[in-house]
Amino acid sequence: MSPRYVVLGPPGAGKTTVGQLLAERLGVSFRDTDEDVVASAGKSISDIFLDDGEPAFRALEEAAVETGLAEHHGVLALGGGAVLSATTRRRLAGHPVVFLNVGTAEGVRRTGLSTARPLLAGVNPRSTFKALLDARLPLYREVAAIEVSTDALEPEQVVAAVLAHGAASG
Ligand SMILES: Nc1ncnc2c1ncn2[C@@H]1O[C@H](COP(=O)(O)OP(=O)(O)O)[C@@H](O)[C@H]1O
Ligand SMILES: O=C(O)C1=C[C@@H](OP(=O)(O)O)[C@@H](O)[C@H](O)C1
Ligand SMILES: [Mg+2]
């Protein structure tokens, strides 16, 4: 069995927030691979990047996505960079994948006050975010069946848009 929805997209798109609401709405459980990675490493994402480096984080993330896809039947949110793995992109085939999109200005605004995302912690989060988005957009689109632009929507409206897509396609 597959997750009901797999939610992905850049940092600040609302994967965690909207994923939780979507799970509530559907009466299913919510799981976030970032949390699974933190649990398996026994430390925060920032500390994994600092102590062990990004490749170590990506390896833990790839394993967390594999387990989540195999075990979880509710809503599964991925970290923003999970699609960088070709293995993960292959594993996502056939799953109901939702791409939550957000533009640079709004994405930076939503993530700006948090220090929890080491990739955006540099001197110029705006250009970092834009570069990240440019590199990843084709990858999100490669694996997703549904895309929702979240810039002008409240989380509840994003949930409604996702469910409307589901209703339209099935
Ligand atoms: N549609 C939205 N409108 C306004 N703020 C949002 C929206 N979605 C998420 N947020 C806010 O943006 C921040 C990042 O959301 P989060 O769910 O952690 O994103 P992600 O998991 O995709 O990185 C949080 O403070 C959250 O409340
Ligand atoms: O975009 C990325 O590469 C990352 C996004 C984060 O998750 P969110 O997208 O939930 O912020 C987290 O996995 C890590 O900081 C790396
Ligand atoms: Mg998240």
UniProtKB/TrEMBL annotation:
Protein residues bound to ATP = G12, A13, G14, K15, T16, T17, R117
Q: Which annotated residues bind substrate?
A: D34, R58, G80, R136
Q: Which GO terms describe its biological process?
A: amino acid biosynthetic process; aromatic amino acid family biosynthetic process; chorismate biosynthetic process
Class of this enzyme: transferase
What does the cofactor section's free text say about binding? Binds 1 Mg(2+) ion per subunit.
* Catalyzed reactions: shikimate + ATP = 3-phosphoshikimate + ADP + H(+)
Q: What are the entry keywords? A: Amino-acid biosynthesis, Aromatic amino acid biosynthesis, ATP-binding, Cytoplasm, Kinase, Magnesium, Metal-binding, Nucleotide-binding, Transferase
Question: Pathway it belongs to?
Answer: Metabolic intermediate biosynthesis; chorismate biosynthesis; chorismate from D-erythrose 4-phosphate and phosphoenolpyruvate: step 5/7
| Gene Ontology molecular function: any one | shikimate kinase activity
Q: Does the keyword ATP-binding apply?
A: yes
Q: InterPro entries, per this entry?
A: P-loop_NTPase (IPR027417), Shikimate/glucono_kinase (IPR031322), Shikimate_kinase/TSH1 (IPR000623), Shikimate_kinase_CS (IPR023000)
Enzyme Commission code(s) on record: 2.7.1.71
Could you tell me which Pfam families the record lists for this protein?
Answer: SKI (PF01202)
Q: What does this protein do?
A: Catalyzes the specific phosphorylation of the 3-hydroxyl group of shikimic acid using ATP as a cosubstrate.
Q: How does it assemble?
A: Monomer.
Which protein, by its recorded name, is this?
Shikimate kinase
